[in-house]
Amino acid sequence: MKPLGLHTALRRAAPALALAAFGLAPVAAQEAYRLPPQDIVDIVDAAPAPYTSLSPARDTLLLMHREALPPVSELARPMERLAGLRLDAATNGRHGPRTVTGLSLIDLETREERTIELPDDAGISAISWSPDGSKIAFTLTRDDTIGIWVADVERARARAVVERGVNAVFSPFTWMPDGERLLVSLTDPDRGARPQRPRVPAGPVIQEASGYEAPVRTYQDLLNDEHDAELFAWLATSQLAIVGANGRGLRHVGEPGLYFMADPAPGGDYILIGEMRQPFSYQVPWSRFPDRTFVIDLNGNEVAQIAEQPLADNIPIGGVVTGRRSVGWQDSHEARLTWAEALDGGDPRVETDERDSVWTLDAPFDGEPVELLRTEDRYYGAQFTEQGETGFAMEYDRDTRVVRRWLVDFSDPSVEPRLAEERNIQDSYADPGEPIMTRNRFGESVVAVTDGYMYFTGDGATPEGDRPFLNRVSFDTFETEEIWRNSGENYEQVIGLTAPDASAFLTSWEDPQTPANVRWHRAGEETVQITDFPNPHPQLNAISRELITFDRADGVPLSATLYLPADYEEGDQLPVVVWAYPREFNNAETAGQVRGSPYEFTRVAGTSPRFLVTQGYALLENATMPIVGDDPETVNDSFIEQLVMSAEAARDVTVEMGFGDGERLAIAGHSYGAFMTANLLAHSDIFRAGIARSGAYNRTLTPFGFQAERRTFWEASDIYFELSPFMQADQIDEPMLMIHGQMDNNSGTFPIQSERMFAAVKGNAGTARLVMLPYESHGYRGRESVLHVLAESFDWLDRWVMPEEDPMGGGEEVAAD
User: Fold this and answer.
1) For residue 714, pLDDT beyond 80
2) Structural class in CATH, domain 35-42+537-800
3) Residue 328: enclosing H or E segment and its boundaries?
4) DSSP tally for the chain: helices H, then strands E
5) pLDDT number for residue 28
6) 20 to 30 A Cα–Cα from 762, which one of 32, 189, 404, 738?
């Protein structure tokens, strides 16, 4: 095999060959899947490294083995698109290809790896350690059956505890606090045959507006008619049951219902239930259907109703429901519920000094709730700790992007909360990280507190790139001491502690040529490597990688990761691809912060733009395109101006550093990055061509907001119009390749967005190509699809960007395909 990145004579001829091929293409056609060069196929097919998980006992590492991309035939299984979900009616679970195909265990002391024997061709998901780490439960899918299995860690053996009949539409199971039983969700044993769609409908589908505001965003996969509603109820109705981890003693708990949540109390005596109510809506997903929250005992008897919510189709943009929301157990109490209630009507536009209140209620739930605290901004839940009944309560201001974390005593409202953190959530340099968790006496995951100290780990963003850390934080004063920080030309981050006082911990270590592997740090001892996952594509080791920083015209700092081909020699001027995704910021300081690391493993997989480097292109990946504005309501008013400035700065730095000529540039991106791509082609002449994947181009089709835009179309119609590249399709005079999954379920990026954008460009004599991928959603998962996307991308750039002379500059005009 020749080293990738060499500019062979055949490669130099590729643009001419591709041009001839494109010239023969019909206006619209169903083509066979195409393949990129075989060396690229080999990289795509390389098996990825396993996922890893440290046991609660801190003595065993679980490896979750994966395979390369599934075939499109797995995506093509029959799918029911109902209530915002994609379901496989045959299995009564979520639709989609398997991810994990095998399990093995590594003993940290002996480093012995033992494989857990499982049936062939099985898909594994919902993997969960028992509270004490002695067992692992998971679902196992074979053909049209989902079962629940439990593995004994000591023996590395697994058995089915529920062979079939599991309802995996929502959560298929959870551990009971004793770690010896599972609360499982089964299909309704009396539900009868699957509902069949009638050949003749009973009547028209009717919806009605009743004079109240209902600003619903553009959800997909919603219910369409009465049959959809009936089928969804048939699939979602579940029968709760408790079964021993040894597979014995299964018994039903209560009656079947439309349960989307079943959560045992930490003490194990109660179960908190979330249940959808009918009639369903055709306008919103299941999470906004009418529901009620109530508590049952282990015999299925209802103890108390806690909350009831009507259809949530009138929530203000960026707002929350009124009444009791986010009901859940306090992890540090055997049976205490907590919840939040909005004090502003759930509307973030209301000016108020107090936006939320937080409440508690103890078993048997027949007393008066206790108001624990009030927050200035929106309450977003709590992380409970190992120390008494304290927890870190978080509030967030969506306008200033300021997050505050308070240490609260959930057992005593008279104790004054203590402020542990206050920062702009986009200020990565000030991010204190997240606390290390442990299991408490109830088996719940809580913040670990050892001898008065907590331990925090985070990315450690710095102007030179991420340097992950492990800090010790005083529980009393929040004073912080750094214990360990990543250094050198590698990237290493903490996975978990193996000693409560952080004298021993596991990390994931990698460098640009070495994939992430697990290492064990122990005070006073040599670091031990626990895993040895091989590089799946060693032929790419010579690709160079560098984190670069530069400024745009208004002084906002920018950054990108620069990749250069293996055979690059200083002074060579290459064609350049800029891959980006715009983000909104309150100020230039946070917008200009460097995120990411130049020392991470150069993993090339799926449809990664890094594959382009193997074809002779320089790549600016994650080139920052910040949209800065101190008023989040109007930040998009200068979207186009700032986007163009950032793109100009990216072009200029390629010339200043010498690897680009300032002419052979392409812009590319996914989702909002595709929206960016089309806008830059419409509003500038910086790039020769663009690649836009899974984008949205006409903002009038997302009239109740998009991305960070909070205004509706009727409040800012001029902005919606100006920011829609569809409206400027006649200004796009550079070639644009559009790729979209035919079954994209992302809010706003309906496949019709790309179809109509292509028609607009074509209708205005532009140059474009539209590729619609069967059975693919917002991202592309099928092997054939991924390889085809790479082949299309290579050919498009070879045709329009690789040549020294601009193919669009003079000569006979090439018609759109």
Assistant:
1) yes
2) alpha beta
3) strand 324-329
4) 10, 47
5) 60
6) 32
Q: Which two tokens stand for residue 279?
A: 């009639």
Respond yes or no: is residue 747 known to be catalytic.
Answer: no
* Range 273-301 average pLDDT: 97
For the chain, give the percent of residues with pLDDT over 90: 89
* Cα-only R_g, the chain: 28
Is the previous residue joined to 279 through a cis bond, with omega within 30 degrees of 0? yes
Whether 22 has a pLDDT exceeding 80, the answer reads no
- CB count in 10 Å sphere of residue 98: 16
* Identified catalytic residue from 671, 694, 724, 777: 671
First to last CA, the chain: 34
Specify whether the CB–CB gap between 787 and 36 falls below 8 A.
yes
What digits encode the pLDDT tens for the residues 78-104?
999 999 999 999 999 999 998 999 999
Please state, in angstroms and rounded to a whole number, the distance separating the CA atoms of residues 784 and 779. 13
The one-character DSSP state at 31 is: P
* Interatomic CA distance for residues 169 and 89, integer angstroms: 10
Q: Is 671 in the active site? A: yes
Distance CA 447, CA 469 (A): 17
Task: Say whether the peptide bond before residue 703 is cis (omega within 30 degrees of 0).
Answer: no
Active-site residue identified among 104, 501, 778, 806 = 778
Half-sphere exposure of 565 (CA within 13 A, CB side): 23
Domain positions in the chain are 35-42+537-800
In whole angstroms, give the CA distance from residue 389 to residue 456: 20
Which of these, 171, 199, 99, lies nearest to 141 by C-alpha position? 99
Give the whole-angstrom CA distance, residue 761 versus residue 742.
20
Residues linked to residue 241 through DSSP beta bridges, in sequence order: 184, 252
Tell me which residue has tokens 């440290």: 54
Please give the helix or strand (H or E) that residue 423 lies within, else none.
strand 418-424
* 575, 662 Cβ separation under 8 angstroms: no
Number of residues that make up the chain: 817
User: For position 29, what pLDDT does the model report?
Assistant: 66
* 778 in catalytic set: yes
pTM confidence score = 0.92
Q: Which listed residue (377, 744, 795, 798) is catalytic?
A: 744
- C-alpha angle 634-635-640 in degrees, rounded to nearest 5: 115
Q: Which residues pair with 240 in a beta bridge?
A: 185, 253
- 333: tokens are 């109490």
Tell me which residue of 776, 766, 762 sits closest to 800, measured CA to CA: 766
Label the pairing between strands 626-628 and 583-585.
Answer: parallel
**Cα→Cα distances 710→398, 583, 642, 725, Å:** 11, 14, 19, 19
- Specify the residue for token string 């290493």: 492
Longest dimension (CA), the chain: 83
